[in-house]
Specification:
With 121 residues, this protein is α+β, with helices and mostly antiparallel strands. It contains three helices and five strands.
């Protein structure tokens, strides 16, 4: 019984990984964005799988975006842009100043100057 359960779990994990890897342009995503305060990172899940996160630190009302991480199956799908967009809007709603320390966030702001007003100068 235990071996059967283990096999089913492995098959389900492999199926989800394959779905995540092959979903470059799916008809519809289930996305969830959340602030993992314990892990100090903003996370984006696609169809139940972690698609990427932005690690941050906070001090005196300033949100520092330190690192953007996107796993290989989700590269080249625009996850960085979605994450940075959501983080900047969240910081704005919480009345926090955001500073883009990571290169991916800085690149996003160069390509999308309309978001610069949400970043601390």
């Amino acid at each position: 019984m235990i071996v059967d359960d283990y096999t089913r779990v492995i098959e389900e994990i492999e199926r989800r990984d394959a779905d995540a890897a092959s979903s470059a342009n799916p008809p519809e995503f289930r996305q969830k964005f959340r602030d993992n305060t314990r892990g100090r990172r903003f996370e984006l899940f696609r169809n139940g799988v972690l698609a990427g996160y932005i690690a941050y630190s906070m001090r005196a009302g300033v949100l520092r975006l330190n690192r953007t991480v996107v796993p290989e199956p989700f590269e080249h799908q625009g996850i960085e842009g979605i994450l940075i967009h959501q983080v900047l809007l969240t910081a704005h709603r919480r009345r926090l100043a955001a500073i883009a320390y990571c290169q991916k966030a800085q690149d996003f702001l160069q390509l999308n100057p309309q978001y610069k007003q949400l970043v601390h100068a």
